[in-house]
Specification:
Blueprint lengths: L10 E6 L2 E6 L27 H15 L4 E5 L7 E6 L10 H15 L6 E6 L4 E3 L4 H5 L3 H19 L5 E5 L2 E3 L1 H8 L2 E5 L3 E3 L13 H9 L1 H10 L3 E2 H7 L4 E3 L7 H13 L6 H7 L17
Parallel strand pairs: 4-5, 5-7, 6-8, 7-9, 8-10, 9-12
Antiparallel strand pairs: 1-2, 3-4, 10-11
Helix pairs in contact: 2-4, 5-6, 6-7
Length: about 300
């Protein structure tokens, strides 16, 4: 969150356990004066100082009243009990991966990782024709180098969280999944797609490289040679081609309601739920270099 500068004060950015808090510099010859924010009560004399945890809690309460949820959780019941849907609903920017979106998704992953009632997780979009359009480039353009590095690290950590969930995960691609959007889908165990969907690691067309594990996970899905071709050219592929190259597990014609891939993912989840729950632990306990990236983004050797 950023604040506009006021004429009477210069603002400086402090990092506190990953939380950025804007505070005014002290006035010349005097001590700094507290600047209370809406929704955050001031600290009274004799009370405990605000810690990173309490600041985060206060900020979260404030944010809940000013920002709508960009990621929602839906738990199915009845015969589908155990299936949980992660709903991506950042409509205005086609589920672009921005600060709020990534933070809410990471919090959701943390919740799911500790829920023993979850058997299968489906990632789907509520934005018509889009799974995830990739990084929020307008938001990225406003970051300096240090802020950009921190955000990429946060994005990479999100993909690791998804890949490390102790339950099978399915990405339902009913629309475009580009750049970081495809990296999110690749972090899932399984993928379904509509024939009309478009997928690609298109970062090279913008002078960038896939920075959230895509350059490691794509070769595992389609093979090294084909993965290099897709990354070097920034090529986009449809659902049928993605199925033929092994990028997705199932593909189908799009339906009138635009959720054919989701319907296929739900059908797949229903096949998984009755099976023994020990299977995913076998895969997640095996060596996964993609889920063990160091802070610089390089792989940690065995």
């Amino acid at each position: 969150m950023t604040f506009c500068c006021r004429p009477a004060a210069r603002w400086r950015l402090l990092s506190l356990r990953g939380l950025r808090v804007n505070l005014p510099d002290s006035h010349a010859g005097g001590s700094p004066k507290p600047m209370p924010r809406a929704g955050v009560p001031p600290v009274r004399a004799g009370s405990h100082p605000l810690t990173g945890h309490t600041l985060a809690h206060a900020r979260r309460q404030h944010s809940d009243t000013t920002a709508s949820a960009e990621v929602q959780l839906k738990r199915l019941d009845g015969e589908d009990a155990g299936i949980v849907e992660v709903l991506m609903c950042r409509h205005k920017v086609r589920n672009a991966l921005g600060h709020v979106f990534v933070a809410q998704m990471r919090e959701t992953m943390s919740t799911l990782s500790h829920d023993s009632a979850v058997r299968v997780v489906i990632f789907r979009s509520l934005v018509p024709g889009v799974f995830c359009a990739g990084a929020d480039l307008k938001e990225r353009a406003r970051m300096n180098n240090a802020e950009s590095d921190l955000f990429v690290h946060s994005l990479r950590s999100l993909m690791t969280q998804i890949a490390s969930l102790p339950t099978p995960t399915i990405a339902a691609l009913d629309g475009v999944a580009l750049g970081g959007g495809l990296e999110l889908a690749l972090a899932c165990d399984l993928r379904t797609a509509a024939f009309s969907a478009q997928m690609g690691l298109i970062e090279t067309t913008r002078g960038l490289l896939p920075g959230a594990g895509g350059s490691q996970r794509l070769p595992r899905a389609v093979g090294m040679s084909l993965a290099k071709e897709l990354i070097f050219t920034g090529k986009r592929v449809g659902g049928q081609a993605a199925l033929e190259m092994g990028l997705v597990n199932r593909a189908t014609e799009q339906n009138q309601t635009g959720d054919a891939a989701y319907r296929e993912a739900l059908s797949l989840a229903r096949e998984i739920v009755p099976q023994a729950s020990v299977v995913p632990y076998f895969f997640h306990s095996s060596t996964d270099a993609c889920s063990r990236l160091d802070h610089s983004g390089s792989q940690v050797e065995n």
